[in-house]
Amino acid sequence: MTPTARSLGDHLREWRQRRRMSQLALALEAEISQRHLSFIESGRSTPSRDMLLHLAERLDVPLRDRNPLLLAAGFAPVFAERALDDPAMEPARRAIDIVLKGHEPFPAIAVDRHWTLIAANAAIAPLLSAVADQSLLTAPVNVLRLSLHPQGLAPHIKNLSEWRAHLIGRLRQQFSASGDPMLDKLLKELLSYPAPKTADEVHTDYAGIAVPLQLGTKAGLLSLISTTTIFGTPVDITLSELAVESFFPADEETAAILRSLALN
């Protein structure tokens, strides 16, 4: 026997509950009546494609998960998923390359929704020379695994417990928002790594505005803060799931070290 296809109402209800919204709250947000929404969820009313996309937008449903909503309602998928080497993606790939290159001599990477490395600028390579397990650097590279694995960067992160908590917290939020089982699997893997010892860790205070990465290198201690950049109006699934993580020096010593590394 094949499993019964999930109804549109099941999909909508799951996303509404994931966002912790009542029918009334979503109806108000979408500017429709609660009765209308109730009829859609129960299958007594069939929404138009525009209404369904409107509800998905109000629920902040990822583009990847909007196509199943459309299919469940009998509509064709709207959002394409192209590989980055597809000719149609050339402008986006060029934009990523410009951002990464323009950030040098400071490090920056592009990652997908599972934290798989898509691209990196030249400032990243010198920071990875101390990685003990070279298989962690074999494609596909997962940057969270690389950061927290005991044979990766973890032994060189001087505030590992703080940085680990920061990364795991981000991953928890991402899984909570998406329900992606691959993220749940990654989260469980990271939590299985040995807990860091905190006795000799570096502690810094940036007035609560950022969690720094304190990375020990042969050139000296790097203090880095990061920002995340995403495409503002993507209509392609792949593009909507890409993020650029840019690292900035938190002090002049770090800036000087990174500039010197770029010259070598």
TrEMBL record:
Q: Which residues form the HTH cro/C1-type domain?
A: 12-66
InterPro entries from the xrefs? Cro/C1-type_HTH, Lambda_DNA-bd_dom_sf, MLTR_LBD
Under the heading SUPFAM superfamilies, the entry gives: lambda repressor-like DNA-binding domains (SSF47413)
The coiled-coil regions, if any, are none
Gene3D superfamilies given for it?
3.30.450.180, lambda repressor-like DNA-binding domains (1.10.260.40)
> What protein name does the entry list?
Transcriptional regulator with XRE-family HTH domain
**Could you tell me one molecular function GO term of this UniProt entry?**
DNA binding
| CDD domains attached to this UniProt entry | HTH_XRE
